[in-house]
């Protein structure tokens, strides 16, 4: 086996359907970044409200 | 700088080293996370064929080194940041979100959550995905989803974290 290449489990069956998981905004980079920006805005607003 | 501490910790050079360490380790940690987002911007289920083979020692050693580096970089970042605040007597006011230190305090809390996420959510599942801990193929594939979500949670949290770190000198604006 080539030690430089990622090794595979050669004995497992191929062509099986991949398991499905519930979609979340984290499933895309854009969704993740938008959630981060939204979280930042929410925290800044909360901080200003609490400190006021 | 906090007076009355021992002379070593009173040195300005310590502050500089801690700040540099905090930045450098943080870049290693968050940079690794961002590189992962760039390499895989969308979720793609792991297939059986893509599972690594734990019997390949060279590959496993490289994986272990890579994951160890960013995991420990998280700890170094966190410790250096806490020491920076502690030296200035800012740690408790920051943690309790007092006055102009509230912004940096939020950053501390977010960073702490992220480090705990790496060590206690991501890594235990990643060990199975990578084959460091034996697990059936189905379990490894399920754990890949958990590690993906855990990693992306840290990507999301890094955005307010970096914002609050960068706005440490704008505390008056943040707190109105």
Give a written overview of the molecule.
The complex is a heterodimer of chains A (52) and B (176). Chain A is built from one helix and no strands. By secondary structure, chain A is an all-alpha fold. The N terminus of chain A is likely disordered. By secondary structure, chain B is an all-alpha fold. Chain B is 74% helix and 0% strand. Chain B contains seven helices and no strands. In chain B, helix 3 packs antiparallel against helix 5. The radius of gyration of chain B is 19 Å and the shape is elongated. Classes of the chains: A mainly alpha (52), B mainly alpha (176). At the A-B interface, helix 1 of A face helix 5 and helix 6 of B.
Shape of chain A: elongated
What gross morphology of chain B would you assign? elongated
**Strand proportion of chain B:** under 5%
Query: What count of helical segments of chain B does DSSP give?
Result: 7
Structural class of chain B: mainly alpha
Query: Could you state the oligomeric state of the chains shown?
Result: heterodimer
DSSP strand (E) fraction of chain A?
under 5%
Q: Helix segment count of chain A?
A: 1
**Biggest chain pair contact, residues each?**
A-B, 37 and 43 residues
